[in-house]
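Lecture notes, part 5. Sequence design as translation. It can be helpful to think of inverse folding as translation between two languages: the language of shapes and the language of residues. The source text, in structure tokens, appears below.
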């Protein structure tokens, strides 16, 4: 007995404070049930089953007793203040059977003790007969599987059991009266609940019968554990309490630790535990002092808030619990039959998900199961069994199409009586209770016996059989590659590695780290991305359509995918690319092996190509993905992206078929070379090696057991699973390396399983390529022999070719490699590629996967003396009969041959688990109808000349069907044309159906158009007239005819049976109808008849050149030709515009020769001269401007030296005031470039001297004396003893200082009661620092709220607004922010209108020149103004806002002082905080980042202190050697993290715009965007300006949706905003943006590029701002020098306000008076 199990089953002392003592005798031997004092006497008349559904006569009890059943007292519970007996509500029958010594043939076996312990070995494989077993259908009824069902002789199956942990397996099935279709299943319909368990040397079976109450899972498990004799624990011993003594700086609670007594825990606790949320996972400690609340927890305020003084924990470490697995069959219905006993049953449903047709839990759950022993009931059932429960469904472990309960029973030697299924359980029980109990107990044994035979007795069961097989394959591959760790295996096997990407909450206080799978290098990323794009599904087409009575054979590739995977080599992921091909044609020479010098058809290649096949190729080999499936056309024209993503085997075959293939970009991959045991190198085939062992085991199983045995089916499932798992999630990886793969695409309840343990895009794409190439090669060679291929499905095809001819095909050189692989995969060294699966002489082949024959097992087709079934593929159609029976085939045949449209069928469905979990629905079975189209799917083009009508006669009825051949489409456009015309053609059975269809194809019509062609022609002519494209005199707008007269005139030309009236006249003028015209040449005769003529050729070209766009939210379809003609739109997006668009240059161009003559001698660059010339006009005389003041050229791009040279040439003196002022301004601007508002006088003197020393003036250097003299005489400058600045800066800063001094407010203090009221109203709890802010802010005239990201500043603003409104109901409150995005965020969170500061100032005309000096200027009507992101507001804007507010208005500045300062001059918020004269509250507790996040710690404790961040937790440091390598690393991370489904969850940040632009280009190129265009469809973009009228603001992000009527649609928060040509300039790509732009934003994941070593933007504040934008994880890609510069450079600005303090600030009154 292991120590773990001892601990799990140990009894505990009753005193909760005493330590639980270990009892040595853990598993006392159970006495015989008959002697148990809880058992009722079997001979007693008390053995009666009664209840609403159950009634058994006592006279039949003897039969039950003879079969070993004993009625047992189920136990007791405490209720209604007394001990109650469960037997009053439920009846329990138990049978205990020894696993003893009888075998099927009567020979003796030694008794094997199958205990709940680790050392049981393979004991459960020795199944034996039950005493008294009878004959069932001529076979012995076997209680457990016989010994010869041993899996040990097959290594692949034996590996399924390796390393399985212990878990007590309990099988459970419910039997209930069918409530009828459409009625929900209620537990009161349950007849019995059956359980089976193996414990020690016995097999226990339990049957619960309902009397007047339902069974709950808690009660069932408790009674079972009581019967097994497990030891229970006092619940008090499993309970402890925990209080909160305080909080860390980052908001984590500091707890008291585990305290057994609640009273003691409450004494030590200081802060409150909040349980107000309905979700237990959200319960947490809050920074509210217990001392501030009433002492009594029963007080109304405590109860109303649902607060507590401490947290209660029930349980012990999960590792000490008893692991239990509930094994169900069809678990969703069985779980629904349990009583809803509050939380437990609901939790079981919530923890489950639908997987592989079954219902299993994806995680385990700790549950405390109460004991129901009488002695424990007296203590109110406070003794429990702590278990960790997992749910598994046997269906998830059954081979495909062998998953019925009978199939599973047959696999392990337990036979069922199928006839019993047809009886109602309640009636069956009343009629034959003994038979009922035997039948139901047998059914319940089967799931337990089945999973035990695979995984071992009482061993944990994996989620699915496929996942278990995947682990076996992975382990074998690891061993083959010599990799011990998972990390090393992922790197060597698939060139990827897992990187952490944040945390995910999995329960109360539990978190798991999330990881993403990304490539290990840039080359690996290129290869994997191309492999994902090159991955296509299997080939599924129908080629020869109709009904055929000749002999046709269904050939399959033998183990197609196993054979292909054996051929595919492993790739050397450290150097994966052997050769890159770009812009070159491929030839067969490219496939020559450099070692053997022979052509290798399987040489690993992936790439993007264009191609052209000869017209006579019937089956092209290069796939193009369209409509979710690969299609095969002759030319690449029209394919998405303009290229096809392909693999080597198909390219090889294309070249053999005569195609020209041009490679845009591609890679020949380098195989991995290993050194064998013989010391010789060889190509690595890890998957092939693993597959080989399974294939050999399967062949042995077929030889030993025949096909259909459990062993053979399991091995077959494992083989199929290998390919499925290598390709799992590959298509999603094509979009991004994001681990997202859904088992079902259903909203938020879907579980993301992502990549499997062996997902490998290269293996997946090459494997499918080999199989497709093999099939296509066979199809072409069959066709060359004059035979037909009727249908191709994944790994086989139907043909009339003979076996001998097929076996002789060389498949254009592919067959040799396939035969070699087949020989390696078999012990007999057989190289056969093909096998015959079906044969028929009555093939109905209407569409792909829809072929049928009536030859079933009872009516086989004889081929070479062997009976064979015919094909029977349903294409989703469900017949009323059992699948594959003669009746099923007959129904399918007749339905397809007589179809007139979609075929209706009825299926039985049930309530999905999603509906039960999300909507609380009950389990219910119901009928659902669906319509299935069996018309040809048009993946190939019908050959019109091949059509022939046949009339098959089936059971005396004659049918009519069109037979025809097909060919590949010329290109994708032709395919789309044919497919788009199919929408209403659901029959396509007869030639008449096809004639109507071809009319639509030829006429370019859709299914919604009228059938009468004459009527269509007439309407099209009138429609073109109403569009003013053609002119018809009697119908034009200038016509004197009325509408009625026009309709009458039209009717005189109408040769159809339709009527043209007023409604038709209106209808043809609707824009949504003006599309899908017949070809114009088909209208010309009618137009001539109507005296019409073409007047707008461009409009006509537009009509026939654009696709219609659907209106409405999220339904816009970009058009290829714009419907308005703005020249710049055409130029920018490379769309050819009509000739009329281009306009000549302006005719009023002013002569500019003098400007050139003026500037050329001054060394002004030509492009600058040209720009100045373009500005020249009759209104702007640039020549005069420059000659009046040469230094004005600085505004127009001229350099200072050039301006000085021009001044010198014009004769301006060296000491001219204009020259001196320019140099002083330039020097001052240079010295205050960092945002300072002043410079020291000495620095200014030196700077002016330096700038002027290179002047063209002789002796033109401006000395300190000259500078000082000019400053003193120019009122534009202000100087003190030490500093000098622009006077405007000085005056603005002093104005702000005076406003702060003058601000005052008489506001009563805020009480705790006031805050509590606000909390109740807003349904939130404030932490201590937030409460301090509510108490202090707003009491004075100006106050400041500051705090780091995620500290809840916006929540405090919301509270301040409510508090101010409650005190001043009529007060005007204004919310504003510096950026548009911040104002939008503020509006959304505070639920009150918010504006940008610019917008508020614009409304009062504050930017007009005279406003600031006007005594009567208009002010903002506000009593309280709150400014968010105030650290971003520069000096000028702060000054204007303060000046625009009434003197008594209160101001609250809100922001993070540690973030980047404003872009403009000044550092107002920082200076006011530093002054100490403004009421300031700093928030201290972080709420945004997850618990334990290293982001906050690194930001506060390291970056702000100048220390490099630590690589731990959510912060990932990625050092690189250069900017170039940094870009590659950023792109690698971007590819793994970015998802187009959620583009705004991640963001790349950079210090500079130039770096952001570079990364944006690389990102767009990686995503396949056209980088020749500024913006493409699907681009993530950012707005750079505010446009309140259109509804977008600066910094807001969106996604480009496409063009519609000449405007660009951008999706912003699910709303489409349409931008004109001018407004398009307001957006830029936003995959990367500057840190400045990101301020105020937050993202799940941030990638920071820090590689600009010499950028002045590298500062400590920038680094702090960048990483705190991340909520979950941040990746910092940096060079050492850039990081060092950023950490050493602190944003520091020299301002006049920085001198402001409580002791000194300027007393001079500058603040303008307001009347």
């Amino acid at each position: 007995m292991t120590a773990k199990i001892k601990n799990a089953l140990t009894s505990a002392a009753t005193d909760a404070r005493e330590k639980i003592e270990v009892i040595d005798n853990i598993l006392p031997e159970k006495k015989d049930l008959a002697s148990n004092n809880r058992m009722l006497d079997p001979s007693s008349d008390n053995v009666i089953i009664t209840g609403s559904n159950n009634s058994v006569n006592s006279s039949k009890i003897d039969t039950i007793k003879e079969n070993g059943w004993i009625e047992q007292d189920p136990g007791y519970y405490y209720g209604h203040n007394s001990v109650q007996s469960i037997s009053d509500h439920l009846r329990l029958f138990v049978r205990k059977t020894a696993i003893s010594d009888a075998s099927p043939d009567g020979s003796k076996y030694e008794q094997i003790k199958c205990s709940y312990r680790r050392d049981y070995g393979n004991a459960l494989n020795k199944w034996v007969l039950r005493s008294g077993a009878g004959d069932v259908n001529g076979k012995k009824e076997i209680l457990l599987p016989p010994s010869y069902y041993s899996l040990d002789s097959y290594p692949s199956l034996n590996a399924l059991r390796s390393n399985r942990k212990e878990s007590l397996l309990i099988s459970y099935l419910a039997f209930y009266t069918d409530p009828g279709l459409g009625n929900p299943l209620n537990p009161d319909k349950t007849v019995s609940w059956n359980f089976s368990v193996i414990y020690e040397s016995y097999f226990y079976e339990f049957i619960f019968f309902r009397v007047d109450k339902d069974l709950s899972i808690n009660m069932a498990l408790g009674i079972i554990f009581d019967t097994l004799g497990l030891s229970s624990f006092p619940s008090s011993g499993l309970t402890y309490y925990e209080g909160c003594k305080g909080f860390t700086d980052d908001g984590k609670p500091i707890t008291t630790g585990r305290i057994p007594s609640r009273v003691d825990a409450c004494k030590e606790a200081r802060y409150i535990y909040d349980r107000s949320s309905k979700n237990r996972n959200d319960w947490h400690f809050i920074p509210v002092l217990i001392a501030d609340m009433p002492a009594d927890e029963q007080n109304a305020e405590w109860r109303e808030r649902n607060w507590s003084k401490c947290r209660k924990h029930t349980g012990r470490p999960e590792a000490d619990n008893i692991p239990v697995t509930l094994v169900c069959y069809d678990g969703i219905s069985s779980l629904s039959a349990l009583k809803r006993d509050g939380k437990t049953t609901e939790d079981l449903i919530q923890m489950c998900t639908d997987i592989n047709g079954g219902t299993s839990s994806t995680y385990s759950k700790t549950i405390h199961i109460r004991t129901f022993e009488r002695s424990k009931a007296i203590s109110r059932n406070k003794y429990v069994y702590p278990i960790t429960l997992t749910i598994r469904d046997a269906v998830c472990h059954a081979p495909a199409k062998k998953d019925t309960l009978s199939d599973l029973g047959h696999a392990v030697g337990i036979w069922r009586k199928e006839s019993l299924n047809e009886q109602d359980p309640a009636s069956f029980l009343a009629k034959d209770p003994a038979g009922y109990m035997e039948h139901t107990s047998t059914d319940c044994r089967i799931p337990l016996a089945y999973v035990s035979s695979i995984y071992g007795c009482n061993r944990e069961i994996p989620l699915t059989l496929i996942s278990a097989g995947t682990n076996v394959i992975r382990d074998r591959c690891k061993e083959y590659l010599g990799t011990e760790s998972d990390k090393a295996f992922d790197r060597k096997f698939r060139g990827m590695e897992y990187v952490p990407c944040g945390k995910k909450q999995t329960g109360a206080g539990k978190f798991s780290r999330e990881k993403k799978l990304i490539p290990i290098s840039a080359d690996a990323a290129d290869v994997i991305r191309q492999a994902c794009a090159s991955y296509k599904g299997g080939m599924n087409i129908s080629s020869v359509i109709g009904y055929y009575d000749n002999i046709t054979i269904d050939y399959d590739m033998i183990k197609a995918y196993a054979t292909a995977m054996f051929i595919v080599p492993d790739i050397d992921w450290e150097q994966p690319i052997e050769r890159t091909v770009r812009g070159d044609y491929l030839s067969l020479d490219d496939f020559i092996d450099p070692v053997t010098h022979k052509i290798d058809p399987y040489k690993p290649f992936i790439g993007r190509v264009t191609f052209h096949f000869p017209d006579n190729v019937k089956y092209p080999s290069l796939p193009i993905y369209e409509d979710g499936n690969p299609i095969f056309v002759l030319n690449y024209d029209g394919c998405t992206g303009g290229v096809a993503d392909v693999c080597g085997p198909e390219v090889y075959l294309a070249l053999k078929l005569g195609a020209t293939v041009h490679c845009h970009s591609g890679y020949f991959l380098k195989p991995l070379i290993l050194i064998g045991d013989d010391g010789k190198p060889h190509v690595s085939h890890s998957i092939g090696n693993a597959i080989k062992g399974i294939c050999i085991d399967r062949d042995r199983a077929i030889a030993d057991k025949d096909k259909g045995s459990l062993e053979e089916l399991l091995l077959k499932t494992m083989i199929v699973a290998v390919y499925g798992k290598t390709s799992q999630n590959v298509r999603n990886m094509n979009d991004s390396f994001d681990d997202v793969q859904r088992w079902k695409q259903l909203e938020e309840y879907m579980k993301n399983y992502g990549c499997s343990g062996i997902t490998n895009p290269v293996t997946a794409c090459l494997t499918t390529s080999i199989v497709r190439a093999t099939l296509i090669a066979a199809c072409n060679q069959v066709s060359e022999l004059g035979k037909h291929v009727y249908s191709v499905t994944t790994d086989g095809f139907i043909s009339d070719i003979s076996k001998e001819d097929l076996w002789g095909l060389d498949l254009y050189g592919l067959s040799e490699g396939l035969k070699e692989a087949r020989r390696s995969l078999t012990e007999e060294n057989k190289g056969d590629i093909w096998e015959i699966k079906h044969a028929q002489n009555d093939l109905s082949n209407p569409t792909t996967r829809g072929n049928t024959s009536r030859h079933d097992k009872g009516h086989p087709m004889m081929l070479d003396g062997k009976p064979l079934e015919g094909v029977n593929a349903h294409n989703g159609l469900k017949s009323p009969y059992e699948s594959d029976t003669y009746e099923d085939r007959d129904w399918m045949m007749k339905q397809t041959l007589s179809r007139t449209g979609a075929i209706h069928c009825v299926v039985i469905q049930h309530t999905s688990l999603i509906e039960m979990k999300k909507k609380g629905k009950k389990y219910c079975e119901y009928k659902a109808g669906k319509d299935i189209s069996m018309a040809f799917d048009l993946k190939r083009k019908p050959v019109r000349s091949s059509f022939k009508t046949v009339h098959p006669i089936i059971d005396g009825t004659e049918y009519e069907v069109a037979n025809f051949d097909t060919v590949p489409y010329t290109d994708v456009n032709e395919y789309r044309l044919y497919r788009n015309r199919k929408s209403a053609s659901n029959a396509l059975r007869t030639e008449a159906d096809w004639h109507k269809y071809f009319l639509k194809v030829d006429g370019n019509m859709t299914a919604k158009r009228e059938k009468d062609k004459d009527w269509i022609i007439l309407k099209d002519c009138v429609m073109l007239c109403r569009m003013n494209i053609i002119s018809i005199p009697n119908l034009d707008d200038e016509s004197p005819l009325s509408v009625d007269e026009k309709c009458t005139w039209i009717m005189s030309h109408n040769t159809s049976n339709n009527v043209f009236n007023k409604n038709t006249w209106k209808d043809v003028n609707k824009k949504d109808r003006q599309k899908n015209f017949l070809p114009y040449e088909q209208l010309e005769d009618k137009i001539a008849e109507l005296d019409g003529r073409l007047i707008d050729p461009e409009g006509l070209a537009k009509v026939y050149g654009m696709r219609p766009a659907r209106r409405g939210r999220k339904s816009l379809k970009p058009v290829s030709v714009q419907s308005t003609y703005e020249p710049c739109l055409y130029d920018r997006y490379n769309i050819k515009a009509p000739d009329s668009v281009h306009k000549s240059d302006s005719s009023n161009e002013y002569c500019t020769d003098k400007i050139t003559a003026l500037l050329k001698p001054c060394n002004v660059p030509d492009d600058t001269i040209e720009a100045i010339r373009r500005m020249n006009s009759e209104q702007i005389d640039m020549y005069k401007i420059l000659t009046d003041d040469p230094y004005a050229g600085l505004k127009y791009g001229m350099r200072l030296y050039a301006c000085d040279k021009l001044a010198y040439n014009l004769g301006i003196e060296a000491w001219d005031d204009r020259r001196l002022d320019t140099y002083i301004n330039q020097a001052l601007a240079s010295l205050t470039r960092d945002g300072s508002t002043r410079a020291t006088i000495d620095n200014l003197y030196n700077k002016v001297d330096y700038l002027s020393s290179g002047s063209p003036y002789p002796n033109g250097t401006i000395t300190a004396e000259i500078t000082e003299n000019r400053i003193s005489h120019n009122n534009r400058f202000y100087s003190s003893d030490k500093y000098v600045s622009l006077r405007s800066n000085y005056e603005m800063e002093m104005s702000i200082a005076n406003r702060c001094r003058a601000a005052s407010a008489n506001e009563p203090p805020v009480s705790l009661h006031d805050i509590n009221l606000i909390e109740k109203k807003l349904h939130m709890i404030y932490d201590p620092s937030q409460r301090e802010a509510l108490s202090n802010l707003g009491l004075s005239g100006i106050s400041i709220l500051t705090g780091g990201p995620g500290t809840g500043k916006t929540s405090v603003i919301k509270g301040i607004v409510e508090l101010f409104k409650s005190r001043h109901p009529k007060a005007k409150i204004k919310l504003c922010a510096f950026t548009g995005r911040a104002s939008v965020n503020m509006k959304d969170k505070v639920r009150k209108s918010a504006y940008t500061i610019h917008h508020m100032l614009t409304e009062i005309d504050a930017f007009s020149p005279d406003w600031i000096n006007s005594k009567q200027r208009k002010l903002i009507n506000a009593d309280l103004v709150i400014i968010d992101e105030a650290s971003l507001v520069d000096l000028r804007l702060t000054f204007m806002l303060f000046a625009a507010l009434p003197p008594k208005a209160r101001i609250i500045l809100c922001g993070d002082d540690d973030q980047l300062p404003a872009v403009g001059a000044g550092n107002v918020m920082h200076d006011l905080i530093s002054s100490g004269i403004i009421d300031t509250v700093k928030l201290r507790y972080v709420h945004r980042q997850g618990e334990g996040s290293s982001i906050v710690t690194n930001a506060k404790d390291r970056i702000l202190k100048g220390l490099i961040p630590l690589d731990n937790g959510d912060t990932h440091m990625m050092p690189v050697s250069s900017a170039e390598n940094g870009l590659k690393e950023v792109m690698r991370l971007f590819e793994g993290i970015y998802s187009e489904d959620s583009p705004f969850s991640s963001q790349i940040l950079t210090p500079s715009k130039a770096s952001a632009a570079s990364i944006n280009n690389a990102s767009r190129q990686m995503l396949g965007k056209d980088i020749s265009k500024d913006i493409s469809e699907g681009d993530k973009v950012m707005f750079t300006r505010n446009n309140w009228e259109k509804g977008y603001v600066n910094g807001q992000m969106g996604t480009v949706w496409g063009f519609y009527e000449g405007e660009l649609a951008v999706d912003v928060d699910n709303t489409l905003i349409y931008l004109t040509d001018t407004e398009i300039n307001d957006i830029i790509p936003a995959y990367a943006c500057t840190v400045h732009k990101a301020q105020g934003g937050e993202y799940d994941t941030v990638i920071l590029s820090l590689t600009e070593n010499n950028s002045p933007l590298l500062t400590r504040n920038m680094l702090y701002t960048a990483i705190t934008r991340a909520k979950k994880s941040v990746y910092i890609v940096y060079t050492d020098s850039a990081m060092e510069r950023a950490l050493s450079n602190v944003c520091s600005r020299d301002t006049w306000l920085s001198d402001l303090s409580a002791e000194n600030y300027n007393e001079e009154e500058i603040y303008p008076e307001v009347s």
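The translated text above is only one of many valid answers, since several sequences can fold into similar shapes. The chain has 54 helices and 69 strands.
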